[in-house]
Amino acid sequence: MLFNYKALDQAGRESTGAIDAINVDVAINSLQRRGLVLSSITPEEKRGFLNKSISLFDRVSSKQVVILSRQLATLFEAQVSALRVFRLLSSETENAYLGRLLQQVADDIQGGSSIAKALAKHPKAFSSFYVNMVRAGEESGKLSDVFLYLADYLDRTYEVTSKAKNALIYPAFVVVTFAVVMILMFTLVIPNISGILLESGQDIPIYTKIVIGISEFFVHYGIYLFILICIGAGFLVRYVRTPIGAYSYSRFKLAIPYIGTLYKKLYLSRIADNMNTMLLSAIPIVKAIEITADVVENHVYEEIMNEALTAVKGGSSLSDALGAHFEIPGIMSQMVKVGEETGEMGEILKSMANFYRREVQNAVDTLVSLIEPAMIVFLGVGVAILLAAVLIPIYNISAAI
């Protein structure tokens, strides 16, 4: 249960925040152990429907986490205490939700928690990869370096992912717009023209009959088709949320021609970059593999990394464990083997991450350059067929008069 409180700290400054506890007595005891003198404590009211809807918009973007990480690195490098760092950033951030999270992190640190443990309570903003990197930084005393690593890593990931997403926005918009225009044509324009053509008594070409048939289908059964599509989409979303469905969807994304290759390079870049960043921060390789499996965001590669984790725990080398899967290119497993033999695993993975990141960027650029002419041809052919099916019969009618 969440309790909101107002209190005075040992310096006499007023402090406000929230604490999660089983009951009010436990909450009071926990706050008093932090050295706070309570002035009020009240349970948070249950959220209504409107508040729940608003809470759906509470999120922290990748870019905001990148900026936060750079700010943390700068402040820790300046020898500012952890408590003061998070108090300061909680009041300075423009994202109110992130500000509340940082305030709660500061409260937990003041109560004796480690930074990593405090961040781990907010998985929506800080992934397990992020938390474990911070934990390694606390253990090694290199928090400022770790936050710089995190900022650079998240910046690279954000750049590659956003570029891949942005490349698909334009064609998706064009396709949706074209579909809406065609539906309006079939339901509003073609029915009026088809009435004129049928009343003329002239022979109608087969392609015109097909267009008229499609128009009649949309007019009489379009609403049922729409309902069927909505129901099918609902079942598909529910299926994708199941373990089997999620794995099938991940496999399907990798099987799409050309797009699947782009996804493969994106996930390979993420695997190499994750492990490189963690190994450079002195995180053990077993832990690095385990965390990479959690953050790769594809169930096929997650399964591969989990199987590799089991094999490495059993005494196998990472290169042999990865080489057993055809989804991992031979060049990657061979490069990992070189890293194992030379003791330069981190640098080898860094090179692989840079290689696949460039491959993703080149693939996205190529995709964008191919999509635009393909869309022009597709839309041109569609419009030409529709106009020909309508205008040629009208021309024949006017010529016969």
Automatic annotation (TrEMBL):
Keywords recorded for this protein, A-Z: Cell inner membrane, Cell membrane, Membrane, Transmembrane, Transmembrane helix
Bilayer-crossing regions: 168-190, 210-237, 376-395
Signal sequence range: none
UniProt keyword annotation of Transmembrane helix present: yes
Subcellular location: Cell inner membrane
Pfam families noted in UniProt: T2SSF (PF00482)
GO cellular component entries: plasma membrane
Membrane protein topology class: Multi-pass membrane protein
Domain Type II secretion system protein GspF: 69-191, 272-393
Major location (coarse): membrane
Family annotation (PANTHER family): GENERAL SECRETION PATHWAY PROTEIN (PTHR30012), TYPE II SECRETION SYSTEM PROTEIN F-RELATED (PTHR30012:SF0)
Family: Belongs to the GSP F family.
Protein name: Type II secretion system protein GspF domain-containing protein
Gene source species: Candidatus Taylorbacteria bacterium RIFCSPLOWO2_01_FULL_45_15b
